[in-house]
Structure formats: C-alpha cells, structure tokens
Amino acid sequence: MTWLFCLSTLVILSTIFVTGIRYEPNWASIDSRPIPAWYDEGKLGIFIHFGVFSVPSAGFNSQVGWFWYYWKTLKLPAYVDFMKNNYRSDFTYADFAKDFTAEFFDANQWAKILNSSGADYVVFTSKHAEGFTNWPSNISFNWNSMALGPKRDIVGELMAAIRGKTKLHFGLYHCLYEWFNPLYIRDKGNNWQTRDFVTKKALPGLYEIVKTYKPDIVWSDGDYEAPDTYWNSTGFLAWLYNDSPVKDIVVTNDRWGIGANCTHGGVWTCRDRYLPGKLQAHKWVNAMTIDRQSWGFRRNADLSQYLTIEEILAIFVQTVSCGGNMLMNVGPQKDGIIAPIFEERLGQLGQWLSVNGDAIRGTRPWTTQNDTLAPTVWYTKKSNMIYAIVLNWPKTDTLRLAAPVPSTSTRVGLLGYTGEPFQYTNPSTGGINITIPPIPVNKMPCQWAWVLTFTNLQNA
C-alpha cells in the first residue's frame, strides 16, 4: 500500500461519517472510526496548561507541571533547594492551592486572545497529574477550583466564553493518573490487578467532564505506567463514540495506556513536540510549547527560552506540510493572566494566517513536502492550487525550486500581493526558476514566511 493511497483513504474517511455504526470495546473497532473532518480542516489548536503548578511556576531546565513530582518523588536538588529556601519546613504541595487565586482570570478576555491566533480549536487542562480539577468535580471533593483557590468553575466559564464569543472548538485535556492518589498508588503496588482508582476516580472524572461540558476534543494523558486494560480505555472510547453527547464530532488522541501511543485511538501524538519531517499515513498532531521547556508558566524563564514567531511558523508549516496539526501551548500565570509574550506570539500567528490562511486551512499534503533545491520551502495543496511556503525570502532575484513543473499556462503568484504574477522560466534540468520582483517593504504582504501560489502545474 503506497503512502498516497493511505493518505487518500484518510481524507475520504475523514469527510464521510457513516451513521448507525456501533463501535465495539476493542482496538480494531475503535481504530476504524474516522477522524471528524473539522479537525483535519483546521490545522491549528491552542493548548492551555493551568493548575496549582502555576503557583510555584518554577522550572529548572524542566517543565513546571511536574513540580510536585520533581520535588517529592525524584527529589531533584534544584526543587528541594527552592522549597527549602523559600517556604517553611512543613509546607506541603496542597498549601499552594490557596494561592491559585486566578483573580484576573477573565474568560472573555482569554477567548479574545485565543481567537486572535487564527486557531480553530482550544484544549484546556481540566486535570493534570496533581489531581486538582479546574471544575467543581463531584469526585474530587475539596481538591478542585470551586472548593479552593479561584472558587470558580474555570472550565465552565472558559467553555461558555469560547462557545459564546468565538467559533473555536472547545476541547479538554484530562490526565488519567494522579501521582499521589492513594488508590492509584495501591493499584500500582498490586501490579494493576486491582482497579479501584479507575472505577472510583479516573473514569468517573472522564464521564463527568464529557457529560457536563461536551468537549469537541478529549485529550488523554498520564497513561505511561499502566496498560490500556487497566484504564478500560476501549470501553470508555466505545461509549464516547456510540452514546455520549459528542459522539459524532469528538476527536480523541492515542494516550490510553502502554502500547496505545502512536498505535491506537484517534489522532496520534506519538510524543511531545513530535515533528517527523515526512508525510505520515495516519493523522497526527505536534503538541508543542512556546516556552521551549515548559507547559506551565515559568517565572524564571528568560526571553531566549521562548520561541520566536519565525521559529513557530517554521514548525507550523513543516507540521501541516507533512499532514499534521499543531497544538501550541501557552501557560497562564496563577492570577489568570496570559503573559504578554504569549499574547504577542498568538497575535503574530493570527496576523500571518490572516494573509496566508489559504495555504493552511483545508489543505492536504502534496506529493512533495520539502523542496530539494530550497530546503526551507514546504508545500501544501488545495484542489489544483499548489502552495510553496518560503520561510526565508530569497537573497537574489531568482528562486530555484525542484518540485513544481510548469506548463504553458502556469501562473505564479504571492498570497496577499496585489502586483502582477511572477515571471518564471522552465530550465532544462527540471523544476522552475522564479524571478522575484523588487517589492517595496510597504507592499510586502507579511513579515515572515511568504507563500507562492501555483496554478496549472503539470504535476499538480
């Protein structure tokens, strides 16, 4: 089976939903469900990590969300010393919760900032491995955002704002395991032969968020230690696809137990910051962070540790060209503010998409992803239009590309540019040589990553 046949099959399946199918609680049946078309069309999502870990918000060459684990389980010296030097000796991780105040959290403002990115969906952390829920969970007792800290339903407020103020799809991240939950620790000690944590905490929490908030994405995580049979992952997914209130539109990922990652489930994540650099037969996602190291907000980050917009666009373009979606993470502060550095990057990305979105949204990978003569040029396709996304503006007046083969009626343009089509020649060695006209800086359509358009190519 060729990659082109695999990709064509993926596209067809993702645009046709057969009603009446009942999915069985086994991987063969679960994996046969097509990815809902809206997800593949959109390409860009915004990830948000927000929780009690946002209070210490200190990461030492590592990510903030694992602060509790690094401090108490791994006992990493930087974390031990940080707590020793700044907090009383009997301070516990639970004591951070009272300072998770979110006093400046404004769901409508978040919706505005997130929408400015030009993204198509949002995935918000409902619960991380610390176990604290950002909704008033019936099974989390006093370890949730209504009982402690904000004393608000953060998930509910954000859901209402996203759905009321934008056209963004709303998704939820949910971590299966909890490092220090006694039930989980006991099941682990029993080599997963008991399932008290799953039946009393993990699965009830998943059912609760799906029924209450009806997320368009259920992003599972924290499956690293136990098999999918412990989590009853196929049983939950069968319910989600057959009987849940989001059964026809929900998108899931692959983090459902040891052996499932990059093999089973919905969209494949494979690993954090996954960027294979070549076309994949199965729909995949690059979950990455603007902060190079951390998912949660880090007070001790410096400017060099944030991706520039040029770097973000390079990652985004490569991801889409190879058939993936990008899920780009921001970490709000404990007071509920999305820091200006994140707001700026989101706005810059949205600014770029306002000019070049045709080369991203609704596109498919072309037969070539990366040009062999110009390695910083990546391709996408929509109908008979081929897009060449040029990450570095040519230093000379000629751009030589190997992949496009022009015909006598080929036209070459630049997205957002109102001038004449670009001139080109068809060299005997193949490909195309494009003449780059002298464009005044105030006539350039955007500041970064310019998109050439090709119609009527011989090899379109």
Automatic annotation (TrEMBL):
Q: Which GO terms describe its molecular function?
A: alpha-L-fucosidase activity
EC code: 3.2.1.51
One GO term of the cellular component aspect?
A: lysosome
Q: Which residues form the Glycoside hydrolase family 29 N-terminal domain?
A: 22-358
GO biological process: one example:
fucose metabolic process
Q: Name one Pfam family in it.
A: Fucosidase_C
InterPro entries membership: FUC_metazoa-typ (IPR016286), Fucosidase_C (IPR031919), GH (IPR017853), Glyco_hydro_29 (IPR000933), Glyco_hydro_29_N (IPR057739), Glyco_hydro_b (IPR013780)
- What Gene3D superfamilies would the database entry show? Glycosidases (3.20.20.80), Golgi alpha-mannosidase II (2.60.40.1180)
Keywords attached to this Swiss-Prot or TrEMBL record, sorted alphabetically, are: Glycoprotein, Glycosidase, Hydrolase, Signal
* Signal sequence range: 1-20
Q: Does the UniProt entry include the keyword Iron?
A: no
| Ranges where the Alpha-L-fucosidase C-terminal domain occurs | 369-455
Query: What function does this protein fulfil?
Result: Alpha-L-fucosidase is responsible for hydrolyzing the alpha-1,6-linked fucose joined to the reducing-end N-acetylglucosamine of the carbohydrate moieties of glycoproteins.
What protein family does this chain belong to? Belongs to the glycosyl hydrolase 29 family.
Name of the protein this chain belongs to: alpha-L-fucosidase
The organism that produces this protein has a lineage beginning with: Eukaryota, Metazoa, Spiralia, Lophotrochozoa, Mollusca
